[in-house]
Design a protein that fits this description.
The protein is an alpha/beta fold. About 50% of the residues lie in helices and about 15% in strands. A 6-stranded mixed beta sheet has the order 1-2-3-4-6-9, sandwiched between helices. A 3-stranded mixed beta sheet has the order 5-7-8. The two termini are about 20 Å apart. InterPro entries: ClpP/crotonase-like_dom_sf, Ech1-like, Enoyl-CoA_hydra/iso, Enoyl-CoA_hydra_C.
């Protein structure tokens, strides 16, 4: 797959592995990172040969969050007028938000594999993923409060639907570290692996298992689950009825049924 400056992207069969590739900077998120993140996931969304995505970080850490150099760069662009500064900052924040939203809007399931630090902006990033897994050495932290600001890239908007309100408030108000065992207990991660290599192997295995299912069924399931986050049960039932009125006519339904009856693996077209 195409080369990038801050990511290494490769495709292993129907699974794309997107790896943040700035280990010398603890995978801190610089300006190029944000441009490439949106581009990569927009491209993966449009690639029918990709059925699942694993997002990881190279080296000892998933990501230490926003690169201080980027924050300094943004600060250097501010001038004397508060109104124009506000306009500039809002534009910058919305641009960063859109890159993370591209992860959430990718029609393929995105599985985060976290080892070491997952701090600040990295929490925003994993909150936009479908599932999260971690190694035993993982440390999660919403650090923005220690920088004198509220997290503004999705953590406070998405995590309330992943962990309890009280736990999220504690993490966001205190900025404390959450270790792997606690992250599992509160539902932030699905599973804890003993080592980082075991983590990546395990998550790639889950992704490969998903990729063996009907891509239309998986995409439809993701769309319904995401839709239900902001809609009533009645709205969701109506939406899935309309969706399946079309999708139940897919050849994938017959293929899946035949595979079940024959107890043989199903093979679906992209």
């Amino acid at each position: 797959m195409s080369a990038h400056t801050t990511f290494h992207v490769e495709q292993q069969g129907p699974v794309a592995h997107v790896q943040i590739n700035r280990p010398h900077k603890r995978n801190a998120m610089n300006a190029v990172f944000w441009l490439e993140l949106g581009e990569i996931f927009t491209s993966l969304d449009a690639d029918d040969s990709v059925r699942a995505v694993v997002l990881s970080g190279a080296g000892a850490h998933f990501s230490s969050g926003m690169d201080i150099a980027l924050l300094s760069q943004i600060a250097s662009e501010l001038g004397p007028d508060a109104g124009r500064n506000a306009r500039l900052l809002r534009r910058k924040i919305l641009g960063l938000q859109s890159a993370i939203t591209a992860v959430e809007q990718c029609s393929k399931p995105v599985l985060a594999a976290v080892q070491g630090y997952c701090i600040g902006g990295a929490m925003d990033l994993i909150a936009a993923c479908d599932m999260r897994y971690c190694a035993a050495d993982a440390r999660f932290s919403i650090k923005e409060v220690d920088m004198g600001m509220a997290a503004d890239l999705g953590t406070l908007q998405r995590l309330p639907r992943i962990i309890s309100d009280g736990m999220l408030r504690e993490l966001a108000y205190t900025g404390r570290d959450m270790q792997a065992d606690e992250a599992l207990r509160v539902g932030l991660v699905n599973q804890v692996f003993a080592t980082a290599p075991g983590l990546l192997e395990g998550v790639l295995g889950v992704a490969a298992h998903i990729a063996g299912k009907s891509p239309l069924a998986v995409t439809g399931t993701k769309r319904m689950l995401t839709y239900m986050r902001d809609h009533s049960v009645a709205d969701g039932l109506d939406y899935v009825a309309t969706w399946n009125a079309a999708m139940l006519q897919s050849a994938d339904v017959n293929i899946a049924m035949a595979a079940t009856l024959s107890q043989q693996p199903a093979r679906f077209d992209d």
